[in-house]
Amino acid sequence: MNETGDLANHLLTVALIAFYWTLLGNWAQLLPGAGVKAGQADESSAQREDVAEDTSSLVAALDSIREIDPNFDMASFMSGAKKAYAAVLQAYAEGNIGVLRGLVGADVLDSFGGAILGRETRRENLQLALVRLSEATVMDAFNQGNGIEIVVRFVADVISVTRSADDRVIDGDPIQIIEVRDVWTFEHDARSKDPVWRLIATDNA
Questions:
Q1: How far, rounded to the nearest angstrom, does the alpha carbon of residue 60 sit from its chain's CA centroid?
Q2: In the chain, what is the straight-line distance between the N-terminal and C-terminal CA atoms, in Å?
Q3: Per-residue pLDDT tens for 110-136?
C-alpha cells in the first residue's frame, strides 16, 4: 500500500477510536441529495446558532410527540441519531445495501442504491475519515398520526478520497480537511415495537 493509502487508513482508525463512528465526506459529490461542501471551514459560529431559533414551536412539537410516545427522550434520540448518521453513511460508503435497507426509507434507499451501483460500475473506491463532529442539532419535529419525524442538522470536518481501480485519486484530498453539512429527517412509528428511527429524507444544510 502506498503512503497516501496508509495515511487514510491511519486517520480512519483514529476516528473509530475517538468518535465511535466513521462517516462519508464530500457529501455534495458523493452522497445523492445530501450535503454541501462549505466554502470556509471556519465560518462564524453565529451562523450555526441560527439553527432552531424558534424554540417555542420546537418545544410545542416535541410536547405533541410525547403525547404520542410518552417514553420519548431527546438525549437518547440524539445519541441514536449520531450513531445512525455513522451507520448509514458507512454502509453507503461500503456499498452495503443490506444494512441500508434496515436503516433508511424506500426513497432514500433508491437514491443511495443508484449511487452505489454507479460507483461499482466505475470501479471506484471511497476512503474516509472523521476529524470532528462539531454539531448535531434538532431543527424541527412533526407528528403525523402515529408517525414521528425529527429533522437534525449535522456539521462535521472530514477527510474524503475517491480512488480509481488502479488507486489513482480522482476526487478529494487525503490531507485536506473539509467541512460538510447535512440535514436529515428521521421517522419512527410510535405503534411499532421496532425501535429504529429510519432516515426518510436528506437535504443540504
A1: 26
A2: 36
A3: 999 999 999 899 999 888 777 878 899
